[in-house]
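Q: Could you fold this chain for me?
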Amino acid sequence: MSLTVLTHACRLRSVCRLQRIQSHMMSSQPDPEVLLQKVGRAGVITMNRPKVLNALNLNMIRTIYPQLKKWEADSDTDLVIIKAEGGKAFCAGGDIRAVTEAGKVGDSLAEDFFREEYILNHAIGTCKKPYVALIDGITMGGGVGLSVHGRFRVATEKTLFAMPETGIGLFPDVGGGYFLPRLQGKLGLFLALTGFRLKGRDVHRAGVATHFVDSGKMSDLEQELVQCPSVEDISKVLDSYQNQSSSGSDKPFVLEKHLAHINRLFSGDSVEGIVHNLKADGSEFAVKQVETLSRMSPTSLKMTFKQLQLGGALSLKDVLIMEYRLSQACMRGHDFYEGVRAVLVDKDQSPHWSPSSLDQVSDQDVDRCFSPLGPKELIL
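A: Sure. Below is the predicted structure, expressed as structure tokens.
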């Protein structure tokens, strides 16, 4: 078979896969993917794809955004609450399999998904009404973008937070470049590069959540929140429920004994510098981080390091504009497709990164990822 025919056949298969995914995404389902309700003084958004851990797709983004703007302007709506069905996940991330299939064949979803997701993230971060995210379950990637920029984020013992993007050839997007460098010390950079998972009360201790409430109290909490007319009232209710919640309070922060090490070892002026620090340290914790970083995309690690370096001094708006440039660099590159294949499609957990080592990723390569997109820039 000639190379031309083989290339055409591969492209055709990708087109067919994308059509199947899109048809599934747009198909009429017995239950809507997002439920929108006015309850008391609150607009309530409920993500309703529990079978896929409430993975965020373009249809959901296009449902949530206009309603959020409508409630923001509505004098009868005092707050917005976002939550999820299923009991296992708030939102485990974006529907990136569909995005990578689109990228392979040049479909506009590869641009539209990131653009409209980031526009929604910005709307949440600038919402004039108090925005309360009940992150009772798995909260990763796109789910973080739906919650972390809101005024209030309520974790439970079932919350599992992570930004694992460097392991799939991406970067901690959805405003990760804004909130991660603003966590204590070098904690945000550590979470961004390693994809370390925080659970339960530790999500609050790290500063990702503003409050911690026992999962069994969430239903009662919501009933009180929907009647709150002001930010002060919401704060009082959340503080009250937090004071009544004891789950996990007997255990220290999982990273407590490592925070000083993280601040010192992750203070390198480059990813190579951090790896050098970790290897020189030689402690069990440091060795484990070297092993973790060795599995990540070298390009993603360097992109993420610069993203957080710049993002610490930028507004959320400017961070999202920067991250849109990065998203499109990933769509043009190799590692995002390879990471999704290895982790989500074939699940062999053995991605073949290109370039395969940090020293092969030049500063020029990284800088190109941050280049403006001209007429395709994100407009906020």
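A (continued): Residues 1-7, 25-29 have pLDDT under 50 and may be disordered.
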